[in-house]
Structure formats: C-alpha cells, structure tokens
C-alpha cells in the first residue's frame, strides 16, 4: 500500500512538471507585447494575429526606407554629393537689402517714365479741350468726339513710343470724363486715385434716403450701390458711417463713432447698406448722430443720397447739429434723377459743385471724387504719381496694382500684375537661414510676405494683413521703431510670444513703400548658401521639359511617347524644369516664353550645356547651371530603376529638386505645368521641416493624369568627406517619388495579412492626423483629398484625445481670410503603442504607433459590432467650427475654423489672436488651372508597357499606374454587372464615364509653326459648314428669344460693374412692361445681381474652393489645415452675359462710359479709336465657384441637391 502511494505521488509530480513545460511552450508561442505596467490608462497591448504592433511598425519602417533607397537612390546620391567639394556663398544682409530696393526702384522708374513720356505726348491733344479736372462747366459727351480724341491719342503714342507698354494705358480726359481711352477696364481705380491726392484722413457720413413716399425701389437700389462705392473708395486712414434716414434712423454701432475703413468694416457696412431697404414706415428721424462724430475733428463730409431736392430742412438741420468749433461740416448731395419725380434744374443746385446727379454718363468714381474737392489737403504730400492698394481685378482674375498720374487735362493710369511687382519678395531665397523678406507700406499693411500664397493663386480679394499680425509684434511697431519715418535702419524687437527679432528696412523711391528683412536669429549677419566648387559633367541626353516644342525639331520621334494619353513624354532621358526660382526676373522670362517659346528654351539649354563659358546668361540665377549638373547625376539611376524595378507598374515618377535654385529634374521626362513651384509643394515643405525623416504626403491628384498618388520624400545634405550626416547639416536637395494610393494598400496587405480581413482596417496618418491611406479612400465615389482621422475613425479619434502627451489641439491665425484655424498636432516622438482607454467601447479595438524614422503612424482597428456611439462634430455645410466659444483638448471635432472677429461691432481682432502664431504659408498641390495638356497625338506610342485591360481581377488592377477598377455605372449608384480594369480617364474613381478633373488646354505660348503639323480629316469642310449653320440658327433663336422674353428689370436696364465706378440707371428712360413696374425686386436678388462690389473675403462667410463631389457624402468638416485645391471636381467658369453689337443698350440709351482700345494703326484690325461699350448687362459673381442664374420654378419640378 505504501509503495502504491509513493508511485501515485511520483506520477503526480511528473504530470505537474509536464504541465509546467507545456504552459511554458505555449506562452513562448504567443509573443508578449506588454512589458510591465503601461504608464497610460489603457488596456494591455495584445498581439495582432500573433504579431506585436511594435514589430509591425519597425518592419514597415525598414520596408519604406528600403523602397526609397532602392528606387530613389537616396544613399547613392548622398554618396555622390560627399565626393563633391562645397563652398559657402556668403552675402551680407545689407547687400541683399540693396538688391531688393534697387529692383523695386527700377520697376517704379520704368512705370513713371512711361507715365511721363505718355503725358508729354498727349498733352497737346488734350490742352485743346481747355478744362480743369474739376471744372463744373458744361461738357459735351458726343461719342464721335470721344472716338476722335482716343484715335488721336493712339496715333500719337504709337508714333512716338517704342515700348509697347503704352497699350496698357488708361487715359481719362478731363473734358470727357465719360470716355476712357485704353483697353477694357472696370475703371474702379479712378476714384481712389483721385482721392489719394489729399493725403489727410477724411471723415465721411452718408445719409441714405429710404422713404417710399418719394424713393422708388430702383432709386433705393442705386443709392445703395453708390453708398458701397463711396465706402470702397476710402482708405484705412479715413473714417466713415452710413445712416439710414427712414423709420427713425439707423446706423451701424453708433456708440463707436466714425470707424476706420478697414476691410472688415467695409464688409459690415456692405451688409448694413443692404439692410437699408425701402421703408413704408412714416416716422420722423430721431437718431442722435452727435455720438458718431464725438472724436472727429477737422472736416466732415456729409453726403446725402436722395432723389428729392424740394425740402432739405431735415438734412440741413442734421448738418447744423453736427457742427463744432473744431469740426467743419461740408454738405454734399447725390441726386438720383427718378422718372417717378418731376425733373429738376440740376444747374440750380450744382453751380457750386456740391451736387452730382445719377445716372451719369461719366465714370462714377470721377463724379464722386468731385464731392471731396473742397477739402483742405497737405500740399507738401502731393506725389508725382500714385500707387493704388492691391486689388483683385475680376476681368483678368488676378491681383493687380494701379499706377496713376493726375494732370490738369487727364488722369493716366495703367495696371500692373502684383505678382510681377513683388516677384523679388515671392522668390527671395536664403537657404535654411532664418531670414525672410517682406514689402510693407507706412500703415503697416503687408503687400507680400513669406506666409502669403503666390499672387497668381489668389482667386478673390483677400483681407489686408499687417506686419504686426504675421510677425506677432505690437501694433505700434511701425511708429516705435521709426520704420514709418526713417528712410533706413535696423532695430531689435521682441514678439508677443517673447521671441527676439531684428528688422532691417529701407524706403523706396515711392515713400509709402518699405522693403524689410526680418531676422529670427540675432547672430545672422549674412546669408550662406552651399555651392559646388567644381560641378560634375552634365549628361548629354538631358532635355528641357517642354517636349511639345521638340515635335517639330531635330529630336527623334521614336524617343517620344504619350503619357496617360494626354502629355508628351520620353523614356530615353530625364528632363529639367526651370522653376520661377531659377530666374532673376520670373515675369520677364514668362514674357519671353510667351513670345518665342522654342527660341527661349533653346537659349536655356545652350547656356546650361555650354562648357566654354562664352554664352551669355539668359537671365538665370548664378547657381542654376551647377545645380542642373549636380542633380543630373542621379537621373541615370532613375532610368535604370524604371526599366528594371519590379515596382515600375506602381511608381509614377521620380524627381529631385535643388534647395538653392529650385531646379527640378525628373524621370520619366514629361511636360509639366507652366506655373509649377516645387518649393511650395507638400512633399518639399514637409521634407525640409523634418530633415531626418522619410516623409509621406496625404494623397492628392497627380498633375500628370495618373489619378491619386502619395509622395515619399527625403532630403540629402551638403557633401561631407568624413563623418556621418545629421539632421542639422545644410540641405542641398529634396528627393521624391510618387506611388499610387493603391500600392500602399498592396504593400500593407502583403506585409500584414490581417489588414485584408473584413473586420480589420489598417490605416496610415501623418503628424497632423490627415490620412495617408485608409481602406475607405479606395471606395468608388469616396472623397480622397484632405481626409482626416476625425472623418473616418470617430471612436479612435475620441479615444486618443484622452491619451496624455500624444495629441495637442492647436490654433493659428489666418489673417488673409480673418479666421482662426483649429488643427491637431500628434507626437511623432512617441515610443509606445496606444490602445483603447480602459473605459472605451471594446467592440471597436485599435492600436496605434509611430512608424520609426517617418512622419506617419500605423493604426489597426478591429470592429466586432455594427453600431458605434462615438460622435465627432463636423460641419456638413462649410468649414466652420460648431462651437467657437470653447476649445477643449478632449473634445473631438474635425479641423475647422472660426472668425477672428467675435462680434459685429468689434473693431479689432480678438485679443487672444495676438497670442496665436500665424498660420504657415499655404502649400500648393495637384494640377493647376493652366495645366499644359495636349491633344492626343496618335502617331506617338504609349509610354506604358502594359494595358489596363489585361488585368482581370480587382487585386491585379489595384495600384497600377493609370489604371482604375471600374465597378460603378455612370449614375454613380448602380453596380456594374461585369467590373473591369480600366484607364483612369475612362473610369475616374471607379465610376464609369466619370470625367477626369484635368484641363485640356495647351500652352498659350505655343506657336502653331512650332508644333508638328497634324493631318486633318477630309470631313473638316463639311463639319465646318454644319457648324456655321448651327451657329447662325442659334443666333437667330437667341435674338428671337431676346425680343420675346420679359427680361427682369435688373438685367434689362441696370448696368453695374464690380466695384461700380461705371454705373447708369438707363431703365429710367425706358418704357417698361407693366409686369416689370408691378414687380418689386427682393433685396436678396438685388444683392446677388446688382450689388457686386469688389470686397474682401468676409470673416463671417469664408469663401472656399471646396466642392462636394456629385453623388458623394457630405464633407463632414472639410479641413483647411492643408489648403490644397480640391481638384476632384471640375472648375466652373464665371458666367458673363453680354448683349452687344450696337452702340446703344437694350433701352436705346448710349452707354455711360465709352472705352477705346489703344492700339497701333499698323497692327489694329479694327477702326482706330472705335468706341467699345462695356459688356451690358454683366452679372459678375465674384467667386468662380458660385453660379447664380435666373430660373423658372414649377410646382412639380424635381429637387436636385448638388
């Protein structure tokens, strides 16, 4: 028995040992992902299909770095640079400041020389008119006489001036202020230029009649438009208020007095004027106006807008009540000649120049300026010429600057593109040093700054931005430092955040403008740029990117191919793109390319390839030639990998950009956008911000037509013969390549099979929370660009906000649109795995970790339930935050924006904005509107070695360059019965027949003789005949329609330009239809069609480029933190309704302002001096993304929301 017990004990011991061994083996098979207790309040990190996320991100990091090392040759190129000898090019700050001021002064001299020479030529012609600029004598406005004057001026200028810039001149003869000689113009700069003569602050109060007793709806509308015009003619040093005289009186924030005419105040006054509608309330005026002028001194111009001059006792009583010992009141009247009131003798009231009448055949700004003629001005401040403030010109769709000169016989002016004037600031390059240039006026208004977008990318009038805003300085900096008074100097200042800076400035010959250098590091006394002492030999095969010009040249046609069936490309060599940074004057080079593209390109390449150093530099920066040779050394590697790499089907292109000169070289070589700026692209900017990391950009629309791509970029440093490179070494270039978005899905699925499971989602996001990849981005018709974590993973976003030291919600001030931007900043130095907070919803589990050595995080989400209760507030209408009064770190919300101005009567930005950093400069992305697309050249082969149709399954089609899995029918809803792999152009975003959002226009600079001759089909003459017949039929139908349809009163008779300085009310002389007389236009329709004044962007309704895709979901809080163009949809052109062909308008009245085109008699194709009436009527919508059209609404009409 005893032996039996002993045996049992031994057996139990053996079994226990075996169990322990088994348990140990089992525990070793399952990896342990949680080492010790987590410092965070979260659940333990568990393995994912037997693999820890920490190991997954390390594995992903190695693969991404190997990808860029193999395909881009980062290590190889760095080795090439290490073999080169670099020297520093040192330029003192004083020298850079001299160069900038000299460049601006040379341009100003060129402008003034043109005005002086033109004025001396036309003076003898205009002196015959013998009238002063503000003469009140009777003027003749005969159209034949106007044509004769303009014809004489044109002939004289053409015979005496060699510079063709005179063709841009606008000349307003004093004797005929209704005639504008020159190219078509809105003439809205005439009034401000005339008022700029008086360099003294003006106090203005507008009294607007609204009573229905004698003011008709049309009279009130004209008074409102005129009031807005006056407000927009004033400058920020002026003060203004608008008072409605009906229903007891109304004013905007009367307790604040006359307010300075800031951009924000103009917007508020515009809205206030719109609210002053025609009133039937019979109530006497009771509003006390004395508080409005309590701080005003000097002169007060009181302008009364009315159509009745019979009883002015009320207005005269107001004027008498406002007079003080230190305030002189000048009463002026704008009399509206209404057909509902008996005619008055205008001479009786206007003999002393205090009354002007509307409608007028003169330029409205000219007439309004007459009301200020009697004010006292500082004669010592009179300038020989005047520069207007920058403004957005709606005809050319560009930011412009007017240069004007006022004589006793005429007002001469011409428009200059602001981008050409400030190009030296826009492309001011100092390498990695903390020095930036800016142009500012004496009021502190910035004209150009590093944080501004390029002027050619601005699509509507921005708000004024001030030096103290972007540099975070005190508002009185301009005065305290002496910048406004001292012609030059240097001073050290401290920002509101305690950062020390140096300001180096110099006044220009136009005394109101100042060029300034801001130095963030006080030890900086010069700029240093690394240059190669002995550049390597340039490969002989490199080409200029304008391959379209090579079709008719001596380039072998078999070396060219078509890229995505829309651009000419080559696989034989790489190409070089000379960005605007490469030239001393980008504007001048653009003109040369437009005039003779082939010759200009040949001169570029000849100079770059010249080894004798005998050829003249065609206007390039000194470092361009060497940079082209250095970057070209890696092009052979690009070419080799393109042909031999197993990933060639997924890599769109490889490219490298010089930091110093902005030279861009890429392979395969293809034609690029004519206005591409590589230094403002996301891949470039982020790579410089994080020089020690591999940077992945969120997906964007490839400019070459390959659909949505992701850029991988990395910097290379100045060569060093010994030692390892660090992130603080000077950066020489940025290398990058584009891969398809589908390739990232392929890579993740192959590396981590769990990502392909139905209940698992693997995603990549950058350090701002924007998705680099997410499975939902591959879905047909889904929005791809600018998608944030808060848009796609609500619970994850809610949960991670509770993790300490991981994410920080921030705000920055965007002063150009008057908003504060809220965004996220994630900690990419995190060295741990994040997972659900303990109290989180465990039916949705996630893990998140940073990918080492990159700017992205890898997230894995496992969903085991169908409903999620998490909520992340996002506006579905615009980008506004749902609660602008509070921002809590743990509250989930999409990146959004709020107004910098919290109340209607707030004169300045919120005080909290002074503590905010200004938002960084916007980054450009995608294809531009001037994309140089070409017509398909059938004679050239395709660059792609494969056909999308050859791939039968979705998995095979995924990620292929230029291919898209087509699975949705053209209605954007129905699934195709037989999905197939298609070209992107045929099935964009997976929708059959969906238009690809690319332009199809060619270079405007291309000359027909420089493009290969194309064979036209024999059906051309027949098609032309049919087209001509259709056009004739269309014109006939249009004329019939025009005669038969009752046109609305606004479109029929009222002609209003943007910022209406040319204005008439011709309907007052028309025989209107009874239906038009009975109709009372709604204020909203008036505002949409009649009151289209050039105004800054409202801080209360921020205009955006965002457009929701057809059939897509709402935007769920479209973000503004990465301001890319929403290139997924086509742009809509602004509608322009033109009824022309006669010298009279619809009502048979001669237009109020005539325009004669200045042209040389030898080259003019029309009669010299012919009067060209402005388009009438014109509906200008301000922004190209809003379309307003008259429609008939029927009861049974289906509603279509787009």
TrEMBL record:
GO cellular component: voltage-gated calcium channel complex
Entry keywords, A to Z: Membrane, Signal, Transmembrane, Transmembrane helix
Transmembrane regions: 1019-1040
Region (Disordered): 1102-1129, 1154-1183
Molecular function via GO: voltage-gated calcium channel activity
Biased composition (Polar residues): 1154-1170
Signal sequence, start to end: 1-20
Highest taxon above the source species: Eukaryota
PANTHER family on file: VOLTAGE-DEPENDENT CALCIUM CHANNEL SUBUNIT ALPHA-2/DELTA-RELATED (PTHR10166), VWFA AND CACHE DOMAIN-CONTAINING PROTEIN CG16868 (PTHR10166:SF66)
Protein name: VWFA domain-containing protein
Organism: Trichomalopsis sarcophagae
